[in-house]
């Protein structure tokens, strides 16, 4: 009996998989549960297993193909069985040029027409060759005179007059056309599967309206708080770990920031799972600290250290990269002061952090130099407006400027 092997969904957000490597070749015998192909999906790699015992009769996809979920990728059966005519829909397959209705390959498209109300269709002249035998150019006297005035080379003009003759309007049009200057291409680098995923997700996000609010946070107390924790802890706590805890506690008070929009319904989520944006050599990935609101700062620190180490090694599991309900992106280590983030769908909000930097601030009527951090919160404007974003940032600011209320 023939079994069709399909592209499986390995996470809720996964919409397609990229074929990385076939572990078996056509004609090989496979056993149910045996790895058959390596796939990249939703920022992680995994192996798809054979759904049945048998022979790998047909491989339907090539390496680097992007295959949507549930599309067939291979056929398994017994040797000699007939292979059904199934073909996957490939997102990465070449898209043919748009064809003109009623025109087949090898034929010439008719002249375009446009209808005029109450009149007969008007035919738009189609350019033909303006050169005569012997290389002479067919052009009207007025066109030649106009070409001399405008400094136009008639050999570079396409004629639209009778029989391809160059007329005055062609010369004028040519003089107004500036040929684009093409930069020389040093090399061509195909996007990696991870970069393709990022490109799709960011395009999906940017189709929705965003608003961004910005605040300045005095980090004086956080600096002292962190030094105190690290004196007594066996794990080194980063500023980002403290922010993650503060964000998780703030989200308990603002559930609409910990939600996802499904159709015309806003689903408020019970778990607070913080996605922590991390830069790798291949691109940005977002491992998840689950139920961060129920963890201490040191527990969060241990988890982020482990996730970061395995992110750099490329050994994170698919489930560790999915299920975030709110994302924190910190570019402070790269000496960035402020940036505007893009919401990570299907979330409704994201927090962006800049570097902690000493700046002059007014304290009790006098100027002091204090460590300050800029924070910006971007939200899906379909769900949230400016006022609640301002309230959210004010509450987060209170937590970070009074960190001793948070559990260590």
What this model shows, in words?
Helix 5 (239-253) crosses helix 7 (386-401). Helices cover 23% and strands 25% of the residues. It has helices at residues 141-150, 168-175, 193-206, 220-232, 239-253, 297-313, 386-401, and strands at 3-6, 16-22, 29-30, 35-41, 44-49, 54-59, 66-68, 72-77, 113-114, 122-123, 210-218, 259-262, 265-268, 274-276, 278-279, 284-285, 288-289, 326-330, 349-353, 357-363, 366-380. Strand 12 (259-262) and strand 13 (265-268) form a beta hairpin. With 408 residues, the chain is an alpha+beta fold. Among the domains are: 3-77, Beta Barrel (OB fold (Dihydrolipoamide Acetyltransferase, E2P)); 209-405, Chloramphenicol Acetyltransferase.
Tertiary shape: flat
Q: Whole-number average pLDDT?
A: 84
What pattern of helices and strands is seen along the backbone?
A: EEEEEEEEEEHHHEHHEEEEEEHEEEEH
Uncertain segments are 93-127
Q: Which SSEs are present, and which pair or pack?
A:
Blueprint: E1 3-6, E2 16-22, E3 29-30, E4 35-41, E5 44-49, E6 54-59, E7 66-68, E8 72-77, E9 113-114, E10 122-123, H1 141-150, H2 168-175, H3 193-206, E11 210-218, H4 220-232, H5 239-253, E12 259-262, E13 265-268, E14 274-276, E15 278-279, E16 284-285, E17 288-289, H6 297-313, E18 326-330, E19 349-353, E20 357-363, E21 366-380, H7 386-401
Parallel strand pairs: 14-18, 18-19
Antiparallel strand pairs: 1-8, 2-4, 2-7, 3-6, 4-5, 6-8, 9-10, 11-21, 12-13, 14-17, 15-16, 19-21, 20-21
Short summary of the structure?
The protein is 23% helix and 25% strand. It has 7 helices and 21 strands.
Defining key terms:
OB fold (Dihydrolipoamide Acetyltransferase, E2P); 21 strands; four-stranded antiparallel β-sheet; flat; seven-stranded mixed β-sheet; alpha+beta; Chloramphenicol Acetyltransferase; 408 residues; single chain
